[in-house]
Amino acid sequence: MSTKIRVATTSLAGCFGCHMSLLDIDERIVELLDHVEFNRSPITDIKHCGPCDIGLIEGGLCNADNVHVLKEFRENCKIIIAVGACAINGGVPAMRNHFTLKECLEEAYLDGIGVENPMIPNDVELPLLLSKVHPLHEVVHVDYYLPGCPPPADAFMKVLTDLLEGKEPSLPKEILHYD
Amino acid sequence: MSEPTNKTITIDGREIPFEEGQTIMDAALAADIYIPHLCHRPGLSPHGSCKLCTVEVNGRSASACTLPASSGQEISNNTDALNEVRKTITQMLFVEGNHFCPSCEKTGNCTLQAVAYHLDMLDGHFPQFYPRREVDASHPGIMLDRDRCILCELCVRASREVDGKDVFAITGRGTDARLIVNSESGKLVDTNITTDDLAAHICPVGAILIKEEGYEVPIGRRTFDLHMVGEPGLEPVILRKGQHSDEH
Fold it and tell me: In this protein, which residues make up the domain named 2Fe-2S ferredoxin-type (chain B) (predicted)?
């Protein structure tokens, strides 16, 4: 049995920018891997979350699958961290909340400029869209928040290092940004 | 103005002078003591609506921007308890509007954002309102995006008291409260507001923006990317558009 801290990550209604920023920790990931092993994550390609210590979740909730994955993380992770603007307040995807879902689909697939073969996709494989985009904390309990679009690599390191050391994570003001 | 006196108040244990007629906020700003605020700007009549400047004066809560300073006041300002309440107020301001910092031209120059940084706000805590509010892009030089309006009335007062124009007002109550424009069409283009007006520049958030200059200073080099909101002497810098004090 490994004694390493288990971390899972996922991107819901996000752009993977937060994951890219996590990878910006560069060679520090080598040292991090001395203490941490990745479970479900785009980094490992493991498809389902096992019991974990920390779940890093990027993106808000825009469809039924996002909600399903979020609940899987909440059931399996001792600590859930909402990572980035979208996870915290819906972010840019939530700007569709100005419009009805019908208006959004019609603009994207029927009436938009340059649309060919206009047709709203309705394959059964496609997760159903929520009528509004929501942040994570409206559906599950979130333990910590890591703001930024994306949060800088140093912010990831700070929060993970604090947790590895058994401390309450805190962000110094110099790396606290919402943009 | 009355003559300077040797009257004093005490803020967080520090004794500072005040002049007759000054509010607690005026005296604090003159002494380089930061009391968080959004709806106050020196030179405009105090409004007392945002409540961020709530301090404890001899044990009772009061708005520093409206309460006149008077001799012997013992004031608590930078305490954990007050800052926690201020953070909650700021979270409510965020969730009741549509504040998506990454897509806002004002990011980095936004006082709401800077106050939230100052208070270590990491999340909105409350459920998002996602209100639907009208954008007015009718004016060739000025954009009005009500999504980000926090109803501080700085533009209302600047237009009335400094520009002498009365372009803006707040109407409605509670969640229906909104910024309206004083023209028959209700559009900015039909008012006499110009890009030289204080009302066009004073917005602490990204609700009233000058067009075509939003990205002249890149993100990462803006006022609150380089300064903390509580730094003394920042007020004129915040008002200067397109540049900050470190650039020429």
Answer: 5-81
